[in-house]
Amino acid sequence: MKEVLYGSTRGSGEKITASKAILKGLADDGGLFVPDSIPALDVSLKDLSTMDYKGVAYEVMKLMLTDYTEEELKKCIDGAYDSKFDTEEIAPLTYAEGAYYLELFHGATIAFKDMALSILPHLMITAARKNNISDEIVILTATSGDTGKAALAGFADVKGTRIIVFYPKDGVSPIQEKQMVTQKGDNTLVVGIHGNFDDAQTGVKNIFGDKSFGEKMASKGFRFSSANSINIGRLVPQICYYVYSYTRLLGEGKIADGEKINFVVPTGNFGNILAAYYAKQMGLPVAKLICASNTNKVLFDFFESGTYDRNREFVLTSSPSMDILISSNLERLIYRIAGNDSARCAELMKNLSEGGKYDIKQSERDGLSDFYGNYATEEETANEIARIYGACGYIIDTHTSVASAVYGKYVRDTKDETKTVIASTASPFKFTRSVMNAIDKKYDAMGDFELVDEMAKIGNLEIPNAINEIRTAPVLHDKQCDKDKMRDVISEFLGL
Ligand SMILES: *Cc1c(COP(=O)(O)O)cnc(C)c1O
């Protein structure tokens, strides 16, 4: 098997193994690690269709994480995709109103982040062992709501690690916040920052790039890593469910072998859709990758015009996990469409950090032909939830609804009849109030947990464990800080 090494999108060409890239998270020059080649699937789609989730996951990940042994990788996979998920299928497909919804929310924290964050701690601990690292690994994470809880759940009480999560104090749903601040585990810290997600993410990236802070950490036996989708250890596990969903449709005779399908992905940081793009590069028969944005439609404008411009008002929406103006993982796509030219990529990213925008050339725009971008307003998002529920009783969350509404626009625009899978990224129970209000305004009078019970009733659904757990759980974290005080909070927690 060909060894895959990882280099920086902005770097001079030094390449490291997958396990080292996972340990580091972000490259020293501030760039993101990208594979030096994307290997093709070496098992037929037909054979993959007879395997379970773990089997498919192994066949995909072995190609990208080539310095992990078969035994190591299988152990990581077994430790991740177990009874933490409430269905043996791990990521089931539900057909509703002309599309297949790929339910990625059956893990411990009921959002798609569990798909990767239930395995990342295993990959990281294994990486530390392989590379003889004895430092304590400090996971530093910025969250728009879902990564934080999924990372906390994954790393809580994992020996040799600590985890610090920064979330925008007023930018997450009540259930998301409750999930995070009730997190147990002596190695966890949750902090609400006075700012938005971009502030939190930029703060974390700056701390990663702060050499003197890194040295202070190292002198006390700590090293940082990241659980954000800038870590290649998050991206690779996300490729698996695209391959899995295709092979389920194939196994059930819903598509022919080799038939192309579309994926629609509700997008924020561009991690999930990038994984779908990598799946296509590995040979999965994919037609269009449909990138769905909410009112923060910076990506839609980019696909339309070739200009990425974050100079605009940041809007809080009912799909908070997509309230992002700096989509970090887009850098990995830029690098690719620029012909793997790290100097060009670095130049564009410098424009972004200095002036908040960059323009790509026509030749680079041509590389975006795999993608279609559109967005849904708040009203369109609410209407889509009501439409799907009214038509068939299926309840989708706000993020999934953005994707579903954008798919409707895509079909109207293009008349494309290609079979389509929509990534369903969160359980509706995570955004109960917005979802129930979309179905009927009368629900606005109810309390948060009353709404949960009502949703279970009208949707004929079981209330997920993740929700039942927080009904009575005590708040264990109440720290808040200004966005320029993140270093102080970290120093205090680690005793630097
Ligand atoms: C994180 C998240 C997204 C956005 O995914 P990206 O990989 O950041 O594009 C969409 N929906 C939900 C529910 C999420 O938690």
In short:
The protein is an alpha/beta fold and about 500 residues long. The protein has helices at about 20-25, 45-50, 55-65, 70-80, 115, 120-130, 145-155, 175-180, 195-210, 210-220, 230-250, 270-280, 300-305, 330-335, 340-355, 360-365, 380-390, 400-415, 430-440, 450-460, 465-470, 485-495, and strands at about 5-10, 15, 35, 95, 100-105, 135-140, 160-170, 190-195, 220-225, 260-265, 285-295, 305-310, 355-360, 370-375, 420-425, 480. It has a domain at about 95-110 and about 235-460: Rossmann fold, CATH 3.40.50.1100.
3D structure, described in words:
By secondary structure, the chain is an alpha/beta fold. It has a domain at 93-110 and 233-460: Rossmann fold. 45% of the residues lie in helices and 16% in strands. The strands form 4 sheets. A 6-stranded mixed beta sheet has the order 4-5-15-10-11-14, with helices on both faces. The chain has a 5-stranded parallel beta sheet with strand order 9-6-7-8-16, with helices on both faces. A 3-stranded antiparallel beta sheet has the order 2-1-3. Helix 3 packs across helix 11 (232-251), helix 17 packs across helix 18 and helix 17 packs across helix 19. The radius of gyration is 21 Å and the shape is globular. The structure holds pyridoxal-5'-phosphate (PLP). Pyridoxal-5'-phosphate (PLP) binds at residues 111-113, 146, 229, 266-272, 321-322, 399, 425-426. Pyridoxal-5'-phosphate binds next to helix 12.
